[in-house]
Design goal:
By secondary structure, the chain is an alpha+beta fold. The chain has helices at 2-18, 20-27, 34-47, 82-96, 107-110, 127-137, 142-146, 159-166, 170-175, 191-205, 209-221, 246-257, 270-277, 343-356; strands at residues 51-58, 61-67, 77-78, 227-228, 242-244, 261-262, 265-266, 292-295, 300-304, 307-314, 318-323, 328-334. Strand 9 (300-304) and strand 10 (307-314) form a beta hairpin. Residues 53-339 form the Beta-lactamase-related domain.
């Protein structure tokens, strides 16, 4: 009898020490209480007038799904920079197909048509500075672009980013920018770098990004993408302007949660999911991302009530938040109208995400 009791104690001790996730997942494996959801719905509706949807899924089962301010299941939203995280997965698929070269490959080796040295010109003003800029440009790699460490002199959502979008060739526009830092030295969020990466990826896979995504990601996940805008060279914008319904965003997030799988089908390797969501860049502070703890390959990282989350983030409140140890995906969308408060709405939505992930909210 005594030996049986000792065995039971040892078993409990082992579970406590070596299986901390068991308790965490069990606590979050039930329902959100009605009293909580009623209050939650009222508060979020009142505090974010641009809100279109808020969806919570756990263990591939809907816990909460609400649409706001005239939206419904069929409403299509611009997911803005959530597009970047989808492009990250496309890069992983290309790697699985042995198409993507080593991430330390210089971008200009993939896009040699843009490698035009100015050293042979005699009368260019500040020729020394421009030749130096060209030499730095040749050190720019795919990984620098994937981790927002390109080093370009760039301010997001400024006149420079508007000028890029209006230019005849946005890829050339970005590559002609001066460098503020050496590539790999500093994180600076830059949608121009994402577009440059997308152009290189399209060249690598020998088709446009939408076609590659349709065949290898959207169709297998049964996602409907009615629109993905292009630049003036007819390249899909790798940094923004993809449109989809919230439930399709949830499908994508669920695939990430399940380590790249849909059922038994591997869409992208689990190795890539782990690599792309791990801390590639140290980032402990970001104004709209509470408890930030790093940046991956176009994936933000943060803690929510102590749980590690990977977040695809788009301007104005478009979010896919994946929380692996809770087996949870949270999707939010907002209308980009005059009621939208931009970055403030993103920060506010994280406040509501943290409300969902509190253990005492789930019975």
């Amino acid at each position: 009898m005594r030996s049986k009791q000792v065995l039971q104690v040892l078993t409990i001790l082992c579970l406590t020490l070596f299986c901390p996730k068991v308790k965490s997942q069990a606590a979050f494996n039930k329902e959100l209480p009605k009293e909580f959801t009623d209050q939650f719905t009222k508060e979020i509706n009142d505090s974010i007038p641009s809100l279109g949807s808020f969806i919570v899924s756990q263990n591939d089962r809907l816990l909460y799904q609400q649409y706001f301010h005239g939206a419904n299941k069929e409403t299509v939203f611009s997911i803005k920079s959530v597009t970047k995280s989808i492009v990250s997965v496309l890069a992983g698929i290309a790697k699985d197909k042995n198409l993507l070269p080593n991430l330390n490959t210089p971008v200009l080796k993939i896009l040699p048509e843009y490698n035009v040295s100015r050293s042979s010109f005699k009368n260019i003003s500040n020729i020394e500075g421009k030749v130096l800029n060209d030499s730095i440009k040749n050190t720019l790699t795919l990984k620098h672009l994937l981790t927002m460490q390109g080093g370009f002199d760039w301010i997001e959502n400024s006149k420079i980013s508007t000028a890029m979008s209006f230019s005849g060739d946005p890829v050339k526009f970005v590559l002609d920018l001066p460098f503020e830092e050496y590539p790999g030295a500093v994180f600076n969020y830059n949608s121009g770098e994402s577009h440059l990466f997308g152009a290189a990826l399209a060249k690598i896979v020998k088709t446009n990004l939408k076609q590659f995504a349709t065949e290898n990601l959207f169709r297998p996940l049964k996602m409907n993408i009615p629109r993905w805008d292009t630049d003036s060279m007819n390249r899909n914008l790798a940094g923004s302007e993809m449109f989809m319904k919230p439930e399709d965003m949830l499908k994508f997030g669920s695939m990430i949660l399940n380590n790249g799988k849909l059922g038994s089908k591997q869409i992208v390797s689990s190795k890539w999911i782990q690599e792309s969501t791990s801390e590639q860049v140290k980032l402990d502070l970001w104004d709209v991302m509470p408890n930030a703890n790093g940046y991956g390959y176009y994936w933000w990282r943060r803690k929510t009530n102590g749980h590690q989350a990977y977040v695809a983030t788009g301007y104005g409140g478009q979010l896919i938040c994946v929380i692996p140890d809770l087996k949870m995906v949270i999707v939010t969308t907002c209308f980009l109208n005059d009621k939208n408060k931009g970055r403030s709405d993103i920060k506010r939505l994280h406040y509501f995400i943290d409300k969902i992930t509190k253990e005492d909210q789930i019975k």
